[in-house]
Structure formats: structure tokens, C-alpha cells
Amino acid sequence: MSTSSLPRLPLLLIAAALLACSGDDLGPRVPAEVAVTPAAPLVPVGGTLQLTATVLDATGAEMPGEAVTFRSSDATVLTVNGAGLLTSVGSTGSSTITAASGAISAEIEAEAVLPPSAIVVLPRALDLDTGEDATLSFTVTDQNAAPIHDPAVVIEGSNASVMRVETGAAGEGSVLVTGLDAGTATVTLTVGALAAQVPVTVAQHPASAAIAPSSLVFPSVTGAQQATAALLDRTGDAMDAPAGFTWASSDEAVAVVDPTGLVTPVAPGSAVITATTDTFPARLGVFIGTPPAGELLARLPFASARGLAVTHDGHYFVTGADRYAFGALPDFALSPAQVLDGQLPDVDVNAGAAAAYVLRQSGGSGPAVFMAGLDDGAPATSSPLSSGLPTAIAVSPDNTRLLIGRADGFEARAMPIWGTLGVTTVGAIDKVTHHPTRPFFYASGAGGVFEIEATSGLLTRRFRAGAVSHAVGPDGTRLYTINPEDGIGVWDLDTGARGPRLGAVGGTDLVVSPDGRFLYVIFGSDQVPDGSRLYIVDRASGALLREVVLGGLARRIEMSGDGTAVITNEAGWVDFVH
């Protein structure tokens, strides 16, 4: 029988019944939980605090009108009345408060504490630049100077157009204040009747000067180029320089500058243009002449190319993840790879280019140094490294000492017996080299650049440069340091004095050209568009002369005596640039 033959009235009654069942009336609601706030109340000694208890059903919905009773486990410390008002009746202490509704209940731990006696805020005043952040730290203490945990502090700012106030953005017990616009304001912290105020002044504060462009390159002694100077505040924003700028050239026989910053070349060479306002100087490197071409001569495939050594006469040795190979200029060709089980982070070649020292970081029987001949590349001898994670290696010019950089410092070893001269813990080391003429090694890492006496293996000096890499000039008088954030640092190795930074180029490794005129800096990163870069910088002025896109992740750069730069790239190749 079809449904159309059913009586119409019963169908309507069924539909009406279904609609009624689909509403909220699912029968009587049953209390399932009692929620009490605050969950960990602190009551000042002699004071009161109101509790709120809410009865919830199984769905978490409130059930208004349900009766709740309160009970204190220790009425000599805290009492609670039927409305949930906590009262401190004794000295400090704690009591368990029970809130019950029928058969269900909840317990919280309440504590009677000494009342706040002081609010300590540091610093006591803030002087900010627009856009600058600062953190206020505060502590609320009782009459015994003991900190009060989780005090109910109300924090307010008086002028929202001058500053922004964020509570807890820098952690518990902190206030983050950001300067927005010039003016004055006040941060007020209140606990009960106690209040502390911190005056805030927002204004631009001169911090440095800058020149644009950062480098000038004149191919010939013709034309002139305009430079512009700016006074910067602490956040790097330009601000008025009421005193104006005074312009000067370090060598007017090479380049001159007029009072407006117009630079005119005079003769081939290098000069530094300085613009000064008040006590803030800015430097501009000027180069007049033909810079190195920066031409990519060849690119050879080599898996995970990383470690590198290049001799003055053009022998080059490359290491990768588990292999090494070598070659000699003017040829751009690598020998068949020799495979060693493990990671090979670095290599160095001895002064006579007769042998290479390959560093194994892990794998096989553990960390070790392998000595390989440059005739067939086969490893002849090896020496295990007993402890530490090796990262870099250098051999002294007289072939009697090795310096091994480690994840925790450096280790000096004597050859040919391979005996250790001791380990010095200075933090992670990224690169080690030897001085071209003096008996010293240099090791760079986050802790700076360390000078080590080769014969004894003892630390003699520390240059606080924060460098990931370094290079010593061919005449042995200058130490150059580099890291990704800053420009090139310059140190006088005779006096230990630090000179002005060269330009604004950051990087991960660098080398000095054989004639000492140019610095070749690589910025190794595969996280920027087009990957790694090579920068060619004029050593005398810091002027940026060339930028060459390398791609991939450039790791090391070394240079032969004819000025050919060899660059390993962990993306899988070796570049040759002139």
C-alpha cells in the first residue's frame, strides 16, 4: 500500500511530535560540575575576597538558581560564608575551600597572604625613539620584601598616541612599551591602594649617520656623482641634522668632495669620503679605475662540496660529504674522487703542495685526520682524534704543526708523531688558518678570532670580533673578519688595534687577493633569492666593486697566486672566478 493512502491527520500528528522532540526540552537537566573562581585565591591577611561558584550541566551550560554551599577546612585561617565571601581571620596560611551543590562538589586551595606593601618597577623611567621597544619589569612585595606570586596588578598607559603598552608580552612580571610618536606619557601599575608610575618620553635620538650610495665606482677620471648624508635615530629612521654635514676626502689627489656631497674623481686609486654631523661620521668608499672582472671561468660538479684548500701555485683540494678530489690550475678538472666513510668538513695543503690533510668529522672509526698525497690522492696515513667534534683544520707553513677547530674550541697537534699539544675550550670554531710568515694560527667562531702560538699550541690573543670567518692579508699585517650581519672588520696584527669597518657587506667567508688590493667575500645562503653571492670589495676604501650571483649554498673561498678564486658550494659544485 502506498503512503499516499495513509490518513492525513496521523501524519501531521507524527510530524508535530518529532518537532517537539527536536527542541531543547530533553528532560530534566542534572548538575554535573561546580566551577569556582578564582581558582587559587590569595586573601590579604585581615582582608576579604569574593568567590563565585557556578553549577554546570553535562554539556557545560550554566544552571542558574542551583543552591551552592561553602566550607573551609581551616576556619582559624580563612572562613567562608554562604555567599562565598572569604575572610582572613588569623595569620598567613592556607585552607581548602569546598563548594558543593547536592552530590557534586569542587575544591580549591585558598591562601591568606601578607598584603602588598610595595611595587618595584625597573627601569624607573623610559626614554624611547619612535618605533623603539623597551621592557619594564615589576615585582610586588609584602612587608617582609618577599615577592607576592601572581599579584592582581592593573596596568594602564596615559597617552595611547605616544606609546603602546602590552602586559606580559615579554613574560610574567613585565610590560612591553613601544614608542609611537613624540611626546610624554606615564605607565601606571596599581595593586589595591598601591601605585607606581613610570614616566615615558618618546623622541628621536641621534645615534649614527649614513651616506647613500654606500660605494662609488668611477671607471675613469670623468664625471661626478652626488652623495647624500642622513642622521639616523636609534631605530634607523632619518631625522633632522640641525648642524648640517661637513664633507671631507681622505685623499684629494684621488677624489674631492664639495660641501653638498658632490664627489669628483681626480686620479685612479681609492679614497674614503666622510660626512660628519656633531659627533656622528659616515664613510663612503670611492674607487677609481677598473675593478676585477668577477668572471665565472668554470663550474665543476662535486657532490656536497664544502672543504677547500688552494696553494699559491694553483693546486686545489676539495672535500664533500664523504669524498675528496684535487686539481691544479690552469686546468679546471678534478681528479677521480677518493671516498672516505663519513663527513669531511675541511682540508688543508702543506706548504710544498706535496700532501693534503683531510679532516673527517664522523663515520668510519670516528673523527680522524688523513694525509693524502697529491700525486694519486690516496690516503697514506691517518691519525684518530680521540674526543670532540672536529670542524676545521690548518697546517703550519713548516709542516710541523696542525690546528684542529672543534665544536668546543681547538686542539694543536705536533707532526710527524701526531701528538696532541692540548685542547683549549673557547666555544665552537668555524675556520682555522695559519699566518703567512709568522708562527701563528688563527681560529674564528662566535667567541671572536683567537691567535694561537703554533709551536706550543697556546692561546696568545683574542680579537673580539664575533666572526664566522677571517683572513690574514698576504703581508701578514692585517686581520680581516666577517659575519653575515656586519661589514668587514679590520685589525692591526702588530698593535692589536681595531680599525674602521670596511663597507656594509656581510658574509660567511672571505679571502684577500694576492696583491692585497681586494677582498673577495661570499655570503653563503640558500634562503635568499638566487642563493649565494660573491662580493668583491676594495680593501683600501671598502667600496663594493662587483656582485656575482653564485646560487646554491657557498661554503668556502680560497685564492691562488694568480688571483683565481675557488669557491665550494654545498649545492653540488665548485666555482672558479677571476
The helicity comes to: under 10%
Based on secondary structure, the structural category is: mainly beta
Uncertain parts: 1-24
Shape: extended
As laid out across the biggest beta sheet, the strand order is 2-9-8-5
Tally of helical segments: 1
Cα(first) to Cα(last) distance is: 96 Å
Number of strand segments:
54
Please give a structural write-up.
The protein is mostly beta strands. Helices cover 2% and strands 50% of the residues. The protein has one helix and 54 strands.
Helix and strand topology:
Blueprint: H1 8-21, E1 33-37, E2 42-44, E3 48-50, E4 52-56, E5 69-72, E6 78-80, E7 85-88, E8 93-101, E9 104-113, E10 118-122, E11 126-128, E12 133-141, E13 154-157, E14 163-167, E15 174-179, E16 183-191, E17 194-202, E18 206-212, E19 215-218, E20 225-226, E21 228-233, E22 238-239, E23 246-249, E24 255-257, E25 262-265, E26 269-277, E27 280-288, E28 296-301, E29 308-310, E30 315-319, E31 323-328, E32 338-339, E33 346-349, E34 355-360, E35 368-373, E36 379-384, E37 390-395, E38 401-406, E39 409-414, E40 419-425, E41 429-434, E42 440-445, E43 448-453, E44 458-463, E45 469-472, E46 478-482, E47 489-492, E48 509-512, E49 518-523, E50 533-538, E51 544-549, E52 554-559, E53 565-569, E54 573-577
Parallel strand pairs: 2-9, 11-17, 19-27
Antiparallel strand pairs: 1-4, 3-7, 5-8, 6-7, 8-9, 10-12, 12-15, 13-16, 14-15, 16-17, 18-21, 20-25, 21-22, 23-26, 24-25, 26-27, 28-54, 29-30, 30-31, 31-32, 33-34, 34-35, 35-36, 37-38, 38-39, 39-40, 41-42, 42-43, 43-44, 45-46, 46-47, 48-49, 49-50, 50-51, 52-53, 53-54
